[in-house]
Amino acid sequence: MRVESNMQWSDSIFTSEGRFFQGNHELIASLDVEWTKNYRIKNGSRPFNYSISLIELPIDPTPVDIHPRSFGFKSVYVSTAADEINLLESLDRDLLGFLESGILMAGHQLSSDLSCVINASPVSLPNVSTLYECWRERRSEGRVIDTRYDLDHLLDIKSRRLVDVAAELGVGVEQPELKNTSMTAIHRRFLSTGNEALRERLMVLNLRHSLSTAVLAAMSLGRLTPTYVGVNSLIRDNVWDYFDYVDSTSFSELVHTERHRARAGSERRYTLP
If 0-12 CB within 10 Å is exposed, 13-18 middle and 19+ buried, where does residue 27 land? Predict the structure, then answer.
């Protein structure tokens, strides 16, 4: 199983004093789980990758136009199909820290991710189940924001797909990794070939999803102004030394296009570092 994190103690990302953001900063976390899609058989969908992103919310309660310049992350991806149980138990341990921390959690259609994890596991995952209950009670308890269901006050479009919601609010979630293919197909190719480049593309895609969701959730809270956010630029600036793919020519071209789009003034944008 491959684990990447820019936090000192990746096994205690929410509770360690050495976490990415120290002290009493107000944080928002976001979880995204990738899973193979198979609806033909009961519990046929299998989780293979998850990422958690942490961003710091602005201290000023009024919305600001400056997006986070850094973020904390943890990304976990199986090495073989037999690694699945290790991935599920890793996620459950991470969520224990979350539940003890008081940090807000975001997701996009988070209930589907958590249901897939619970249904796939041969053992009890109490912290995943507790987070699912927090999702059910999110309107009253306020521990969870779901950017698929809770952003109606910001949106004029009907679609609630992450890429469409993000585009509507100026958050770049382009997915060039999926041109003429799918996550399930790329993952199966990785399992059959062991090609690390394939795994890295999906890990970065998953990280893009979780980071974008955290930014959207901050907008939903009124802590960031809906305006242009270069998520790929943020990833490039912060995790280039964790994934060769992020330091590749193709990803650099993606960032260049994103920054050119911002400079052209076609949309308002957050100040880039």
Answer: buried
Q: Give helix then strand counts, H and E, for the chain.
A: 9, 6
CB count in 10 Å sphere of residue 217: 27
- Burial class from Cβ neighbours inside 10 Å (0-12, 13-18, 19+) for residue 141 reads exposed
Model pTM?
Answer: 0.88
Tell me the C-alpha to C-alpha distance, in Å, between residue 242 and each of 3, 18, 68, 205, 254. Answer: 10, 19, 19, 14, 18
Residue 243 CA neighbour count, 13 Å, CB half: 34
Tokens of 184: 């399930």
Tokens encoding 255: 């960032």
DSSP letters for 70-113: --EEEEEE-SSGGGHHHHHHHHHHHHHHHHHH--EEEESSHHHH
Judge whether residue 255 has pLDDT over 90.
no
Residue (of 54, 123, 30, 134) closest to 84 by Cα position: 123
125-176: per-residue pLDDT in tens?
999 999 999 999 999 988 999 999 999 999 999 999 998 998 888 887 778 8
Residue the block writes with tokens 């070939």: 193
d(CA 236, CA 81): 29
Spatial distance between the Cα atoms of 141 and 137, rounded to a whole number of angstroms: 6
Cα gap 11→91, rounded to integer Å: 10
Q: What is the mean pLDDT of residues 51-76?
A: 78
Strands, sheet with 72-77, edge to edge from the N-terminal-most edge strand: 2-5, 72-77, 46-56, 27-36, 104-107, 144-146
Q: CA 216 → CA 3, 50, 195, distances in Å? A: 25, 18, 33
